[in-house]
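can u pls check wat happens w/ adenosine-5'-triphosphate
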Amino acid sequence: MIAGFSFHRLYALLDKESIQMRRDRITFGMMLGIPLLLLVLFGYAINNDPKHLPTALVTTSQDHYTRAMVTALEMTGYYHFNHIVESAEEAERLFEKGDVSFVVTIPSDFARRVQRNDHPRILIEADATDPSVASGAISTLGTVAAQALLREQPAAAEAAEAMQGQLEVIVHKRYNPEGITQYNVVPGLLGVILQMTMVMMTSMALTRELERGTMENLLSLPATPLEIMLGKILPYLIVGAVQVGVILVAAKLLFSVPFVGGLGLLLAGVLIFVLALVLLGYLISTMARTQMQAMQLAFFFFLPSILLSGFIFPFRGMPGWAQLVGELLPLTHFLRMVRAIMLKGATFDTVANHFGALLLFVFAFAGIALLRFRRTLD
Amino acid sequence: MDHVIDVRGMVKRYSGRAVVDHVSIKVAEGEISGFLGPNGSGKTTTIRMMCGLLTPDEGEGTVLGLDVRKDSRRIRSQVGYMTQRFSFYEDLSIEENLNFVARLYDLHPVRDHVRDTLEDLGLTARRRQLAGQLSGGWKQRLALAACVMHKPKLLLLDEPTAGVDPKARREFWDEIHERAAGGMTVLVSTHYMDEAERCHRIHYISHGTLLASGTVDEVVSEAALTTYVIEGPDLADVMAQLTGAPGVDQVAPFGTTLHVVGRDADLLGETIGKLATDGFTVRPGVTSLEDVFIQLMAEPRETAA
Ligand SMILES: Nc1ncnc2c1ncn2[C@@H]1O[C@H](COP(=O)(O)OP(=O)(O)OP(=O)(O)O)[C@@H](O)[C@H]1O
Ligand SMILES: [Mg+2]
């Protein structure tokens, strides 16, 4: 009578779960609120192409080439020269204290070399701790500097061309040489937001029943562990779908993240990822006895997911053991997949291995959760 | 299948302590069995083992002809179990809770079953109300209605009438008897003596050990207690005299009378005879089930076993 699988019973469970989900206003609001909040917060950091960043100028001469260069840099709007120092040491101190974001060093022989066409050089050091701060300022450098010199030395065309080839702007990105581009962040954010909300919500699935005392009744009703599991997780796929929609639209409208890959492929990948997450949450809820424990366990997975998945630190830059741990996190594989599809326009063949990894998580989590499910109150 | 419930030597231990200690219970088909015992004596634990919600550490037996160890899942789906603590969903309405149960039991058509149940309960008008907003007594009635919806052959009820008003209690028991007459078997735990007296048989458990089983009359006569009823003016004084006197195990005022109960009839008779009798009437009384239970509760485990 109870053996096997019944769609009737699954429907009963699904209906009950979705009603409860809708009635729980705070949680429901959180599920939609969190992605919006995170997006807006992160969005500002991303969208905000910071200007007028404090800059130290290291120079000893006051010749008009140097002045022209400084003016040109200030004209870009990115640099605000508020410290003029004479030695590299002084600049270094300012840098370390965080008083300046850039140090521009114009060597004392700069003017002479310009006049002699002898490889003039300037050095720009950028505090790349927060790469989004530095990237805009750096990307405009080369042309700006060259054009400034051209204006100062309206020589013959060929001389000017030679100049453009010869002016060397040396950029040192400090503290975070890898750098993460802003486009990396939004697709990553998609994964992080899903990881946070999906696992958190479903990790309460069974513990809530335990804490409210309804578990005793649920267990005495004829529902199989598989039906209970599906009844608990499937409603959250819909929540996940809404979140994905919100994030993708926002990525397009607010941050104009380029989207070169196939939407269908992306959504298929997201679906498998969300499935893995809700199953992970459900697995947690078979282990935790209270909602508090469930919350802590969810966080226990959340932190390494953020840190070791390649969201914050470039994956290949991490030590071997960290990469190993990273491989065991669904988010790692999702990030690779989503970045490949969204930014590089990867086709299924290219990302098939990521799909495979995510599917492996789905089956592993589901299997362990079903094994762990306690059919009794013992 | 001669007995609907036939379990032997059931043991459940929590951190080494046997909270149910070799309990054997038989319940015949169509019988209403009362399950009594003080708080924490192991009633709920025993019932949970019977319906497969707890795995017994020791013991064996059958429920509805199914092995309590191996067939616990089938047992669960065939009995109607009403939990002691309200365990339906407080954030679902009455109707939604019933829908949920009806669908899980595959009752067709769901709507008719739910409608009939709501009508029986008299909750049709309030069916949209959240279950959590019901008063305690109404929650009990909803829970009972939900667990009989699939017409189980065996009902396991854990204190179904706690907090229910007398009229609803009376109706509940009338209904239980009606269903029993129709062949349903019932095991019901309770703390109410009047309910115990409406059971065909009772089982009394204390500290996890079954101390008495049988019809009410059997249990009372097996206890072999002697009871006197004393009537008179200054009962408080008499009570003080009798408390702790030889042969006196219980003294309890009942309105204008005093019930004196003892195990040793001769000793008790002697003590009563020595009382200054002027102004009092002393007559032998009928030992009640409550007297027996109080006696059982008072006895230390060693002598009881
Ligand atoms: N999960 C558990 N873990 C540890 N001890 C437990 C557990 N469940 C019950 N107990 C203990 O087992 C004993 C029997 O409990 P049980 O709930 O069966 O008593 P009861 O007869 O139903 O009491 P009441 O009349 O108060 O409902 C109690 O001492 C209780 O503390
Ligand atoms: Mg109990």
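Residues B 14, 19, 37, 39-45, 84 surround adenosine-5'-triphosphate (ligand 1) (CB under 6 Å).
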